[in-house]
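1st attempt posting a full record on here, be nice pls
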Amino acid sequence: MTEYWWKDLFDRNDHWQGLELTLQENPKIPLALEMLSGCNGRMALQAGAEMLFWASMREDHSGAWVVFNTDHPGSQGLLPAVTSQNIERIKSKGQEAWSREWCRFFSHQLMHAPVPLLSSHRWLLSPMVQTPRSSPYSLQQSVSVKEWRFDSPESVGNVGVRWTLYGEDFPDLVHPQKVRLADWWWGNDLLLGRYPIDADAGRLKWWRKKCREGTLPPILIWFIGGLGSFVILDGHYRLQAAITEEIPPSFLVVSELNERVIAGDPVHRERILRALEKQQRNNTEASINAINQTLINLYDTRYFYASTRSRAILGEGTRWAQELDNFLQKHHLEAYREKIFSRVNDYSGRL
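the predicted structure (as tokens):
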């Protein structure tokens, strides 16, 4: 197992943003999921030895066609199952610790997966919860699933990792759509499942019970920039339970964490320092906390942001094209071939 360590990530105002996870360099370990890229905007998410998603970036970079390989033989069971004992242990920590404890739990699960999921890098596990509607509504008035909205914690200053997900972009987990368009200009980030679920499964009934009890664990999802989408790592049945019960779930977003140093303007910095000195001379009761926060903002030049790495090994995409062609023909989706291969914008529906 790869060695790793974690720490809580806070913004400049000491607001908790999530759990930062750092993995020691270990290039020899194969990954369960890996993003691949090549020429002509061709991309793929590989699960094991086969492609789980094929993707083609539109020529004007306004989005990507995403094709879900519903024939993939083994995309389930990436992580050890969440048990009743796990839920009760985290529940005993109290509601305030709910998100933090699940971040710690899933970081442990990710590092003990049968096949590693994360590469040697810095990662962030950040919560994403439902945002209350701003307009006045009756307490008895329910909100439809398509109107659900989920957001990551608000941040101040140097943390630029901000996620939003809408219920209208949830997948059909029972009868998955094989072709979807991720519209980066006018649309939102999609949520993609990895396999079809069984609507009559016993565990779905169990998760519905947990949902009604208010103890449904978060759905673990991975944001992949190349797809402009979130991919469910763990929690397909939990999400379906929440949809069926019409009770909004919560999410934990896994993303690569990068840091950049943005050099400040020395002249501007000097002006701020002189202004603070003058303020202290003229007002002895000036807030020390406010002054300290200004100085932190002035000298902390770090900026955290999310990105997705891929291995550029598809080349011209000969294998990519052949496998995608075979899949489209098998499922009578030839009408989409020209749009996907030519990377055009026309989109007449979802299948």
